[in-house]
Design brief:
Layout: H1 9-18, E1 20-23, H2 25-33, H3 36-48, E2 53-54, H4 57-67, H5 75-104, H6 112-142, H7 154-163, H8 173-188, H9 203-206, H10 208-223, E3 227-230, H11 252-262, E4 266-269, H12 271-281, H13 289-306, H14 314-327, H15 329-340, E5 344-346, H16 347-354, H17 367-378, E6 391-394, E7 403-407, H18 412-420
Parallel strand pairs: 1-2, 1-3, 3-4
Antiparallel strand pairs: 5-7, 6-7
Helix pairs in contact: 2-4, 3-13, 4-10, 5-6, 8-10, 10-11, 12-13, 14-15, 15-16, 15-18
């Protein structure tokens, strides 16, 4: 029953005084994407809580990886450009529609109605230009200057004293490798957190939520204190649904795991909820309501960006397999073999298809799939929303940490069959598979064994 209990204000007050306030990556990245008012309010709250703050090393890793993306450090200019593109699209669409109408009804250029239409289009263009100037001006006011270099970045300047001595150590390599494997196993059984990411991301990147969670569990056990995790990630593998005006709660499985491992209690708040809660409990804080709304809107935008707009199509799969076969024939053969076997290929078949010796491990076997996907995404051929194409399946009675096989997403099975069934690659034969010549698969890699 304890795992399902709604937190009380006194619970948060206790954590603020004696517990550990853990910041997720999005809390730090929001400092770039927020406007100045929200940025200052967030920093004011974090500084009030600085003695209780702790940041997992996984958060720091993700922070540096995402800082350079257009959606973070260039957030305001990127959003302004999106508006500009949309305005241009509307102008062209209206102009084309009116031109077609003029031609369809056979209006002559010198007619009065034609001249009035041209005047209206001119006014529309001037209105669009005015809107663009307003948006660009606001983007310039909200954007941070000096972020191009780390020594002039105002966000880094504010975070450095705040987080000094409050960042966890990285996992040792062996522990990291095991954690990535554990994350995959948990995802297969839909054990929170992070299993949602395994549907759309490469394994090592998808394991990020579990790596963060593992580090939080370890630090909570070391300190023997309650934990407040502040995160803008509101996927269902972290949270129970919100009930009316009651704050959402962490998944009961997470509360129970925190209790079982660390003997302490887990609480969670979104960045906007942190500002509201802190203002009500900490003296000397006054948070602008618009700052809370700003953070909630950023969270909503993140959810829209994370929601898949589209998956694999026959055309994108054909292109992907073609590129994969040019350099990594073993992986291409395994994917097609999986499609012929209801989405799964066992370990023995992989060795046969790839022509691997029996003592070779399968570490790094899915890495070429990540490489080709990333390159095609950079070239604009893939959207980046396609589910990762080849997942490692772990676990057997005698070898629980070894890959038992590989699985492809269910939705790709009919598409691959449509393209390859009856063709030269179907059924798959191991005799034409060659080793990659770049050495990428020959050494131990993270995440696949």
């Amino acid at each position: 029953m304890e795992a399902h209990r709604s937190p009380l204000p006194g619970d948060y007050e206790r954590v603020f005084q004696t517990g550990m306030v853990v910041l997720d990556t999005n809390v730090l990245l929001n400092l770039y994407r927020s406007n100045e008012r929200t940025r200052l309010d967030t920093l004011a709250v974090l500084n009030k809580l600085r003695d209780r703050i702790w940041v997992p090393h996984q958060v720091l890793t993700e922070f540096w990886r995402n800082r350079e993306s257009k959606s973070v450090r260039h957030h305001h200019s990127t959003k302004a450009k999106e508006v500009s593109v949309a305005l241009d699209r509307v102008r062209r669409s209206v102009g084309d529609a009116v031109d077609r109408w003029v031609k369809d009804v056979r209006l002559k250029p010198d007619e009065d109605v034609t001249q009035r239409i041209q005047e209206g289009l001119k006014v529309l263009g001037e209105t669009m230009d005015g809107l663009r100037q307003i948006v660009d001006g606001q983007a310039q006011r909200d954007a941070l200057s000096g972020t191009s270099a780390t020594h002039t970045d105002p966000v880094l300047s504010a975070l450095e004293p705040l987080l000094k001595g409050r960042i966890g150590e990285p996992l040792p390599q062996a522990d990291y490798d095991k954690a990535v494997q554990d994350a995959q196993k948990r995802a297969d059984d839909e054990v929170p957190p992070g299993y949602e990411d395994f549907r759309t991301k490469p394994p090592e990147q998808a394991a990020g939520d579990y790596l963060l969670w593992l580090q939080v569990l370890q630090e909570a056990e070391r300190r023997a204190c309650d934990v407040l995790l502040v995160t803008g990630d509101v996927k269902k593998d972290w949270w129970t649904p919100r009930d009316g005006d009651i704050l959402a709660r962490p998944r009961p499985e997470l509360v129970n795991e925190m209790r079982d491992i660390a003997g302490t209690r887990l609480y969670m708040l979104t960045p906007g909820e942190l500002l509201t809660t802190a203002e009500g409990l900490l003296e000397g804080l006054q948070v602008d309501e618009d700052s809370v709304n700003d953070l909630e809107q950023l969270g909503s935008a993140d959810r829209e960006e994370d929601a898949p707009e589209g998956g694999w199509t026959r055309q994108t799969l054909d292109l992907f397999i073609k590129e994969l076969r040019l350099r990594y024939q073993a992986q291409a053969k395994v994917i097609i073999a999986a499609a012929a076997n209801d989405g799964f290929v066992d370990r023995a078949t992989v060795y046969e298809l790839a022509g691997y010796p029996g003592d070779r491990q399968l570490k790094g076997f899915t890495r070429p799939v990540s490489t080709v996907a990333r390159e095609l995404e950079d070239e604009g051929e893939l959207s980046g929303e396609e589910p990762f194409l080849l997942h490692t399946i772990y676990g057997s009675v005698t070898e629980p940490s070894w890959a038992t096989g590989f699985r492809i997403p269910d939705e790709t099975i009919p598409l691959l069959r449509e393209s390859f069934e009856g063709g030269p690659l179907w059924p798959v034969s191991p005799r034409d598979v060659v080793e990659p010549d770049d050495g990428e698969m020959k050494g131990p890699e993270r995440g696949d064994e």
